[in-house]
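pasting input
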Amino acid sequence: MPESSTPLPAPTIAPPGGKLGVLCVGLGAVATTFIAGVELIRRGMAEPVGSLSQVGTLRLGKRTDGRSPKIADVVPLAALDDLVFGAWDPFPDDAYVSAQKAGVLDAGRHLEPIAEQLRAVQPMAAAFDANYVRRLDGENVKPERSKRALVEAIREDIQAFQEQHGCDRMVMIWCGSTEVHLDPSPVHADLESFDAAIDDDHDAISPSMLYAYAALLEGVPFANGAPSLTVDVPALRDLASSSGVPICGKDFKTGQTMVKTSLAPMFKARMLGMDGWYSTNILGNRDGEVLDDPEAFKSKEHSKLGVLDTILQPDLYPDLYGEIDHVVRINYYPPRGDNKEGWDNIDFHGWLGYPMQLKVNFLCRDSILAAPLCLDLALFLDLAQRAGMAGIQEWLSFYFKSPQVAPGLYPEHDLYIQQTKLKNTLRWMIGESQITHLGVEYYADDYLPQDD
Amino acid sequence: MPESSTPLPAPTIAPPGGKLGVLCVGLGAVATTFIAGVELIRRGMAEPVGSLSQVGTLRLGKRTDGRSPKIADVVPLAALDDLVFGAWDPFPDDAYVSAQKAGVLDAGRHLEPIAEQLRAVQPMAAAFDANYVRRLDGENVKPERSKRALVEAIREDIQAFQEQHGCDRMVMIWCGSTEVHLDPSPVHADLESFDAAIDDDHDAISPSMLYAYAALLEGVPFANGAPSLTVDVPALRDLASSSGVPICGKDFKTGQTMVKTSLAPMFKARMLGMDGWYSTNILGNRDGEVLDDPEAFKSKEHSKLGVLDTILQPDLYPDLYGEIDHVVRINYYPPRGDNKEGWDNIDFHGWLGYPMQLKVNFLCRDSILAAPLCLDLALFLDLAQRAGMAGIQEWLSFYFKSPQVAPGLYPEHDLYIQQTKLKNTLRWMIGESQITHLGVEYYADDYLPQDD
Amino acid sequence: MPESSTPLPAPTIAPPGGKLGVLCVGLGAVATTFIAGVELIRRGMAEPVGSLSQVGTLRLGKRTDGRSPKIADVVPLAALDDLVFGAWDPFPDDAYVSAQKAGVLDAGRHLEPIAEQLRAVQPMAAAFDANYVRRLDGENVKPERSKRALVEAIREDIQAFQEQHGCDRMVMIWCGSTEVHLDPSPVHADLESFDAAIDDDHDAISPSMLYAYAALLEGVPFANGAPSLTVDVPALRDLASSSGVPICGKDFKTGQTMVKTSLAPMFKARMLGMDGWYSTNILGNRDGEVLDDPEAFKSKEHSKLGVLDTILQPDLYPDLYGEIDHVVRINYYPPRGDNKEGWDNIDFHGWLGYPMQLKVNFLCRDSILAAPLCLDLALFLDLAQRAGMAGIQEWLSFYFKSPQVAPGLYPEHDLYIQQTKLKNTLRWMIGESQITHLGVEYYADDYLPQDD
Amino acid sequence: MPESSTPLPAPTIAPPGGKLGVLCVGLGAVATTFIAGVELIRRGMAEPVGSLSQVGTLRLGKRTDGRSPKIADVVPLAALDDLVFGAWDPFPDDAYVSAQKAGVLDAGRHLEPIAEQLRAVQPMAAAFDANYVRRLDGENVKPERSKRALVEAIREDIQAFQEQHGCDRMVMIWCGSTEVHLDPSPVHADLESFDAAIDDDHDAISPSMLYAYAALLEGVPFANGAPSLTVDVPALRDLASSSGVPICGKDFKTGQTMVKTSLAPMFKARMLGMDGWYSTNILGNRDGEVLDDPEAFKSKEHSKLGVLDTILQPDLYPDLYGEIDHVVRINYYPPRGDNKEGWDNIDFHGWLGYPMQLKVNFLCRDSILAAPLCLDLALFLDLAQRAGMAGIQEWLSFYFKSPQVAPGLYPEHDLYIQQTKLKNTLRWMIGESQITHLGVEYYADDYLPQDD
């Protein structure tokens, strides 16, 4: 059955209420910018720019109806005032100190006024293993050595946090560094072998998997902001489905890739052929330092290279997109700090094969782009859970470089298809009709047979 | 009624058959690149890259169905072999000479092999008036002085062409220069006053209106590739509707604006605020020379400036998009010839108001981007006429900087909404379901209440 | 006689001592950044980056001598501690308020700590005439209406300032806006007609000329940071010579033109042909607003367009540089404030005529680049006066877009020739040898006839 | 003694006459573009754009003298008609086939008309060793296996070529690929150990050294266009001096580094501090493929990174230039072929430390920029030899990324100092005065004590 009708009835959504605990794995630039921002917004000292859940609207009905309420007004999301933040980090700095070191936010305007609240966010000891993140080293690390013990320790952290803050519901977001590349293996194939591998302290089980596993066992939705495998293995996908917990990932789509997945659809829409796409990135933050490790870059490169394929569909258009030299480079370049810069060069051709070029220079801020994604994901995952939507939340593909999808489906990377999917899903959830942009009814007099 | 269902039954489409005459107003760089390209493609000497009608596919059914036929295989379009070309131009050069002067196509590879066919396209004398296109001057001009006589002369040209080439159907495409800016006036309000103004040789009736009027009177669909008013006045819109003739316009969306309407939706999708967008263009062809006249630029500027508004919806998002410094400049710069170059700088801000920048440098080829649009428009207008779809063809907005829409509707400028509209319209025309990208059915097991 | 020997004996330089009054015409972004910076540097709170007089060195002797003292250590310049600042401005804001409005310097770090000193710089009423600077309007304006009375009022200001602050010597620097374009006319040809024109309130005498005239009559050196004629007329040049007062101008070379005069010499050095150079600028400060007036832009455009000619020498190289499409545009674009941005595209060709392109994107800060030039010019003009060097100081061409030179000479625009001229002039002034970079002596054994 | 006087008498220059044999090591894109160009220029079919020796002028005397003859008119250079070309290459393609494969020159316009001449340039078998250039493999390789035998074979090639073409004089230019990085070692310290190492087939003796050694033994001047050590070792430098043969190198300064050494002096001239310089390159030719080998890139990176140091003098200016993050990347990117593209980002700061950025995008053509350098070097090396100037020719630094200089001297990388050095050396050679740009004599009346 085609997608234009809605094959499933709209879900029943339990109302939000009580506190929503938001647990960040990693309390670095992204997490502190997220947490500080929410605090400032609550006080009316700043705007939640970049957050669809806070600022966005949803067109309902016909173009001429003029009905475009704010999403937050028609979808039952948790209120910002109900969020409570916690975090793990291998560095012992509290959110205030960490934010200062990150240098993302203006200390005078955006940290001092909320220093007390930020200081209160003390990182729990991390389940950290330098074999998986080689360029970092921290002292705020759990003493447990076995993977099983670490899972249990994380579960206890979750329970303790929930109790301490009186949380009604929780979500967990991976805001940490990229781990070294791991290939999916039989160890991840089902829960039984996964569990056995934990007991064996198997190398194929990375720390991020321990966090995800603990979250699922505790019924806490999990979003993965890094390109690591983490929750994207059959064992954990099945557990999420069977235990009714929503999950999503991988790798926040913020800088260059966000632009790439906005521009690539243009070439495709216009059927312009592509010969090469060269992308280079310079960044000077902790993320850049970690990615200077070729093994960590391998995860990231994989995540960044894949996006063109499903947008351009080389199988469908071998002449246009069958042979693209797609190169992605990341360079650690300290002068910029958190201010990432991308430069893209695209070689394409048009009518009769004539070559043209497009170049994009993106001067962005890594954490400023990522923070509102954390907020949206926290609220939408919680929404999904209250709506009884378990397992992979493909409608949140919009936020990820390498979206998780159901087995057998290809991921949608086109930012605009992702946006349509997200908004039409929200419409479906609240019982509104799908938007197709057909709009022939506006021209009914012209289109109907004149002799009627 | 919302757009997701299809409020009108699919039309009956008469089969194509016989010759389709394609009349270009203007036989300069765009028209000759279009005509030469079709000839080369017919012979298998080049590919119709950039043409959705020739290369594009239409996904039908579910994502997992794997059903994506070529548009040309499921929509009854005229065949390339059935096209016959004619043109008017104030310069007497035939298509071969004009193409050489334009310098767009490689003479050795792409003009010599088809020299004979190109030489056969001799421009008919133009209804030209230097008061409306000031930087040009031509000698291949109709002797008639009154506007009424010019309309009649154009009609005779159409009839003669049809007879001479045995055309079954015709379309007319404005490929000429931009006229000086004209504001809509009472003269254009209805057919009666329009007709009276022609008899009065009123200044508000420009040559392009005479072509459009003649086309409609002859039952020939009309597409306007320039930003001039032309067929976008109530009198002619009504005539098109009442006489069953499809029309569309205005201003081919090729270079910088194509990119702008691909990128602006990204900022909007991610709810990033915008402070300014500065666009500058350098180009060295005849178009650049004409636009060096401030009055001609006024038309173009209007067309180029408008696109951000309906994409960003400042009324809906006054905080994000209420005050944008949008500057567009075009500079005549001969070194580039037809190779247009655009440079855009975008100042935007994210989370908590932090500023960022994005810059785009587009090294494109004006006529190479425009030529496939001419082809698509010729074929789709002919299709619409055979489907009984009269008047404004909003679904062809995809091709225009300043799309014509029904009174009371705002135009869609977002390239991706335009693409969705175009493709869903084609689906509707052939009786296929709309695509909404909802796709909840793939996750039915996870989303259905667990206790069922 | 060629320039390699020094045809004039080195001058005797009177030692600096006592206060040096620095009078700025205009107390906007440039002047306040200059004044605040000097105050911060005096206190050791910031570095005089960008100031040759403070940071630069002078290589003396052979490359192998290792003798490169700081300029300030071998050339008798006034000390920063001896500078006293005054200014005229049509707006009544003191330097503290004006600097805050300009938004160039960080208020917390760079204005608050010296607020008291900045508040003390109160602008004297300006000799302002809105006919010459159309986009501005101020209330802090001298009541005198006749040009003669204005000259006298400015002279009184100078005398009063000198007396009040006990200045030993003074310099005046035009830091104000660009006036509308004036062509040199017979009125400016000699002092007699100039004087008569002042008495007649002739339109050809602009306010900036009144300041310059007053300065010269008071024996105060004058530097012109704007492109207006001002002191670049025979009457005032002669007066400067005959009264022993150094002068220099025109138009601070800071942003795009600084880069242009650094890059154009590369093409020339390598004998690469040039087809076009397109430069566009966006800026959002008061300067940008003033230049939005086409008449003011005319002055600036003239100043900006001229630089390529003497660098590329089209007379000497007609094939390479005889036909260049050189386009310069400036656009007022508020989002940037004082942060000017330039984008340049250069079309050039090499071996056998093959075309290439170079593009430069300059994200600079107008006043940050101009402020150290003010400091250098103040100190070097004072030095010249103490060295008995009257009239045009061509060796300060380094600082100007449109350098004043002796009648009959072409100006040097090449930044590196200007630098060589400046540094070799300093060497000459202190009795050191000229640097030619010949350096054959290092290879004497290889070069001398082997049979010696 | 300072450099401003000329410490050595001008040399006596033997007149050119007879044929000059030009032997290229490598017959790829650069060499064929060079050879084809000279042939086209001889026939008046193209211009020697980019060649100082052919197009450049030399200002003689005062600025007001108007004396700027062409270099070729005052310096006794060999005539283009007297050049005869030979080459070695591991691929057996003649110059015609190789040029076609390189794709640099337009086949129709620039190869066909001289096909016969190009076919006549058949590559001699190369002294090739895949251990030193890993990504290439060729079949046109000398059968000799020992390094000694290879030296002798090259010498025989030289002698045979000279005899066959009746050359009066010869020069050799390395136009081949970059070899893997070699560090200078004791083996290269003097001729004795160098000779012994050849006999031992020592790894520290690369093929390029064999060519250079053979050239010197035959009295043939040698220029090194690649960054490999080659002739830049004490043993060969001494041999060049003692046998009266001029040498120069290393690494043609063409694309990004040419721009870098033109722009870096601007920051230095204006005393602007530098924080970082990020350079990335994309190129798709054989050179790009070779540099994809990290060992080959090591040589190139070393050559490219060094240039900033002597321009910016961090020892002299530790605050401004003591800590620069200088990153250089090269990426093999086939879509561009020989059309290299560079993107540079420079982070710098000015007055009081405020940060600014400059970005350069260079769309160049590798071989088009290199070919005229080959011509100039051939002619200038021959000139030097006729002038009795043996050993290192530092005045040719202008052409190299990593100029060879006398032991104890730092190299000059500033393109403008290099240009001054080159031109003042030519002036010295023909007995003309040095240019210093002092020019105080034009202002003698103003500068001389007024009371004289």
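fyi Chain B has two domains: 19-252+367-429, 256-363.
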